[in-house]
Write a structure and sequence with these properties.
Length: 703
């Protein structure tokens, strides 16, 4: 008799595998050699091989047999984690590309193992994203997002880095390489690489692609010198990486060029001037942190930001002008005061020479938001152009609130997410495709009708939510404050009588309790919501938006629907950064039933968006009429429930609190599995939905 922990003999392994694979074992196929090899493995490895073979046999016997033939090699070359990854990739390839590709993947176990061993020293962007985010936040200039991309570049708004790095053989070096890439791309935005249109500047040359790559080499040398002056510690780390990679800091023959670009007064114009010198030279190999330049993408992003910054700046100038007219009675309506921008004589390491806004030569006070806009304009343009210094209302070309976007930008942006397969207990990688679809607009009359019909309910909701505003708290025994702390004063008198020193903490200080909450409403727009459910959703969102605006909490509204994993649609009704205005009201009015309800991928996408919001409390409230449901892929039933449950667990791991409100009378059979016993509520009347949403929101956000 063998206990559970005894290893299996070759004969026992042969019997188990033969039972599973009997239908494919012909005379030329036997398991004796394989069984002898597996007999030398641990019991845990043996059990894993048997169970994995059984799992594969449920899909295809030939795949299972090929797996049994090559799994001893896999266990010799990799640890269990690597072998399991090899198995998971086999399943994914069989699902997506069929038998031939899956078998080929199994047979190529040796190159897979080699790549896996290399990846053991790799660093994933998602693992150090937080560290890199804090690092780039501490640098100068506008805020830059960080995301994974197929190329290493920046569009001046987002930095795109590889999802994984295994360039070096040590984890520490790969981590430093991420930091170096990030720093070099940040330097492009801060030290003026994009202040001129590269394609326009290069039109005098033939072979535009070659010129852009040569220009990139010039800028890399200039930016390295800038980093050496401003961030010498970081520059030393980047030189160390070049030494480990055995790459020259300065390409051979470029020493004079590098010297010119290292001068403190060297700018992007210097790089353009030196193009005449290096135009006929061979292009040096890029260094490990260099990446690529994408001028077309940069110009699209800059054009959009340029319109927004100009509009915001001119609006700020108009407000300053109006305030100045109120305080200076000598200024008439026909007078035309002149704005200008000067650099401060005091050097500020954080923002170089801080810009000073003047009106007729007199410095004007500028709020922080306007300062950020000014610095953003200076980063893009190298200064503030003269046409920007015209206050809004004094120009015939007013900003309409819309930004013209080129045809290239109008292409649908897809997001790709995994999906949880509970049968295999693993994720199907790159499985679901999400597209953000512009919501339809509808007549705003629906909003007015809703507010008129439910004006009494709205008053009640406002009173209820008013109670959630940040309250007040008296802090005792403070050094200063609004009132005397009687208890502290009595104790101080006792101390004085007994010969002790009287304390200074004798006051009560009033402190306001501030709320730091972000809530996202995930609204079911499947076809089954047609009728009163859709009406209830829209009315509730109108009423909630009205009261949340008064409360001041950040909130967003996203609808979802779709058909199959290839077309999961997300409808941004209201983003966090958007104000509740006429457009948002028209979007809510335009919410219409669409197709199916693939919930897992929607939760993953909204979790991704919500995790980027800086808030102490984050809520994800789902308004739905039923269980997860979609065409194909067996998503109906337990598969969809388990995928949704896994997505909700992922959201909780990100610090997000989920809740569901449903009208499905059978919800108690599956919602406890997905949300837990206390995190959902079932309603059966349209009038209940606004009340329940308000009640749940109050309960979850009550400080």
């Amino acid at each position: 008799m063998h206990s559970l922990y005894d290893t299996l003999t070759a004969e026992q392994i042969n019997t188990k595998l033969d039972t599973i694979l009997s239908l494919v074992l012909f005379q030329s196929r036997d398991l004796k050699t394989i069984s002898l090899q597996l007999a030398a493995c641990s019991r845990a490895q043996q059990d894993w091989v048997v169970e994995s073979t059984k799992l594969l046999a449920q899909h295809n016997l030939e795949v299972a047999y090929q797996f049994s033939q090559h799994v001893p090699t896999a266990l010799q070359l990799m640890n269990m984690e690597g072998a399991e990854l090899w198995l998971q990739d086999t399943l994914l390839l069989y699902d997506s590309q069929g038998l031939h590709v899956a078998v080929q993947h199994i047979q190529e176990v040796k190159p897979f193992a080699t790549e896996y061993q290399q990846n053991l020293n790799a660093v994933k962007l998602q693992d150090i994203h937080g560290i890199l985010h804090y690092f780039v936040t501490g640098l100068n200039g506008r805020q830059l997002d960080i995301t994974a991309g197929n190329e290493i570049f920046t569009d001046t708004q987002t930095i795109f880095l590889p999802a994984q790095l295994n360039y070096f053989s040590h984890i520490q070096d790969n981590t430093q390489l991420y930091k170096a890439m990030l720093s070099h791309l940040w330097a492009q935005t801060w030290f003026g690489t994009w202040q001129l249109n590269i394609k326009t500047a290069c039109q005098q040359f033939n072979w535009c692609d070659k010129v852009i790559r040569l220009f990139h080499v010039l800028e890399r040398l200039r930016l390295d010198a800038c980093l050496d002056r401003e961030l010498p510690g970081l520059a030393r780390q980047m030189r160390t990486l070049l030494a480990v990679a055995q790459q020259p800091e300065i390409p051979k023959g470029w020493e004079y060029i590098a010297h010119e670009l290292s001068q403190p007064d060297a700018s992007v114009e210097t790089s353009y001037e030196l193009l005449d010198t290096v135009y006929t030279w061979a292009i040096p190999d890029p260094v490990c942190y260099q990446g690529v330049l994408r001028p077309d993408i940069v110009e699209q992003v800059k054009n959009q930001r340029r319109s927004q910054d100009k509009h915001h700046f001119q609006q700020a100038l108009n407000q300053l002008l109006q305030q100045h007219k109120k305080t200076d009675s000598q200024i008439g309506d026909n007078d035309k005061p002149q704005f200008s921008v000067q650099e401060s004589d005091v050097y500020d390491a954080q923002s170089k020479h801080s810009p000073i806004l003047t009106l007729d030569g007199q410095p004007m006070p500028v709020d922080e938001e306007t300062k950020k806009v000014m610095l953003s304009i200076i980063q893009d343009e190298g200064g503030i152009p003269q046409e920007y210094l015209i206050p809004a209302g004094n120009t015939g070309n007013e900003f309409s609130g819309k930004v013209e976007i080129s045809e290239v930008e109008l292409k649908t942006v897809h997001f790709i997410y995994p999906e949880w397969d509970y049968l295999r207990q693993t994720y199907r990688q790159n499985w679901c495709y999400v597209e953000e679809v512009e919501p339809q607009l509808s007549d705003e009359q629906f909003v007015y009708d809703t507010l008129q019909e439910h004006h009494g309910l709205l008053k009640t909701l406002r009173r209820n939510f008013e109670a959630l505003r940040g309250g007040r708290h008296w802090s005792k025994r403070q050094v200063d404050g609004e009132e005397v702390d009687i208890d502290a004063l009595v104790q101080a008198q006792v101390d004085l009588v007994t010969g002790q020193e009287m304390p200074e903490q004798l006051f009560l200080k009033l402190r306001r309790l501030e709320r730091d909450i972000a809530v996202m409403f995930m609204v079911d727009m499947s076809g089954s919501t047609k009728g009163w459910v859709n009406l209830a959703e829209r009315q509730s969102l109108i009423l909630l938006s009205e009261v949340l605006e008064k409360l001041g909490d950040r909130y967003a509204i996203y609808g979802f629907s779709g058909m199959t994993r290839k077309r999961c649609s997300i409808y941004p009704i209201k983003r966090f950064e958007e104000h509740y205005n006429h457009t948002i009201k028209q979007r809510i009015s335009g919410i219409k039933p669409q197709e199916y309800t693939r919930m897992g991928v929607t939760i993953r996408h909204l979790t991704h968006l919500l995790s980027q919001v800086d808030s102490q409390i984050k809520l994800l409230i789902t308004l739905s009429d039923g269980r997860p449901d979609d065409e194909g892929d067996n998503y109906r039933g337990l598969y969809g429930i388990e995928d949704t449950r896994q997505a909700l667990l992922e959201a909780q791991y990100e610090g997000i609190y989920p809740f569901c409100i449903t009208i499905d009378t059978e919800a108690k059979t599956y919602l406890p599995r997905m949300y837990g016993n206390a995190n959902y509520v079932v309603i059966d009347k349209v009038e209940q939905l606004p009340f329940k949403v308000a009640d749940i929101y109050r309960r979850l956000t009550k400080s």
